[in-house]
Prior knowledge:
- The protein is of the alpha+beta class.
- The chain has a single domain (3-156), classed as Jelly Rolls (Sandwich), CATH 2.60.120.10.
- Helix content is 24%, strand content 32%.
- It has helices at residues 3-18, 25-34, 40-55; strands spanning 61-62, 68-74, 83-91, 95-97, 101-103, 108-113, 119-122, 125-127, 130-132, 138-140, 143-145, 148-156.
- The strands form three sheets. Strands 1-2-3-12-6-9 form a six-stranded antiparallel β-sheet. A four-stranded antiparallel β-sheet has the order 4-11-7-8, with no helix packed on it. Strands 5-10 form a two-stranded antiparallel ribbon.
- Strand 2 and strand 3 form a beta hairpin.
- Helix 1 (3-18) runs antiparallel to helix 3 (40-55).
- The radius of gyration is 15 Å and the shape is globular.
Amino acid sequence: MDxxxxxxxxxxxxxxxxxxxxxxxxxxxxxxxxxxxxxxxxADVSRLIKQGVEEGWAANIEVDGQNYRRxxxxxxxxxxxxxxxxxxxxNSVPRYRGQFHQHPYxxxxxxxxxxxxxxxxxxxxxxxxxxxxxxxxxxxxxxxxGGALIALFYLPAGRISYDATPxxxxxxxx
Length: 174
């Protein structure tokens, strides 16, 4: 089995377990407690997604040059409990903001730092290795600081909207 298929297969039992849960603070806490960086699931999936970036099948489509790339790994289907699986690679120098978007049904996002200091801004603050779970209807720009990371996200029904209107700028992000 190739690494892409291995990642999908490793994700399926997890998706079965969380399929009826709603993204938000409570689920984010549960994910970080149950499947945080010390868990077998996190270790396996983070290894596979890093391998996917190295092999060129994950986060291989440039959105804004080499420092902001993404790709859908698996579309939503009955097999994946109607979640899509997508990877985003973000690299900060020293901090970077990606494309504004909305999560109509929420998002479960595994944060996989490439370097030890890389962090992603989640709905509840900066997150290194671990999970964020933006609630249904939430909007944001993916923002990273401290180096490169991969955000592997599971989207209910594969829903994400890049048509959302960003808020007015309030000043520099650094």
